[in-house]
Specification:
This protein has about 60 residues and is mainly alpha-helical. About 60% of the residues lie in helices and about 0% in strands. Helix 2 (about 15-25) packs antiparallel against helix 3 (about 30-40).
């Protein structure tokens, strides 16, 4: 997903709620991921488990 890659590469983690909306619109129903991306108190960095999962990283 290009949006996820851009967020990762540019470190624009403030856009993760937008990614959550896009994933949900695409049919994602993984509440743990969607909630994590929308959590305003979460600290997001490269290596974030949810973003790495979306990007297919191991």
């Amino acid at each position: 997903m290009q949006l996820a890659r851009g967020i990762y590469d540019q470190r624009t983690f403030d856009q993760l709620p937008i990614l959550a909306d896009a994933l949900q619109d695409a049919g994602c129903d993984a509440d743990a991921i969607l909630d994590h991306f929308r959590d305003p108190t979460a600290t997001h960095v490269r290596g974030c488990w949810a973003l790495d999962l979306v990007l297919g990283k191991e």
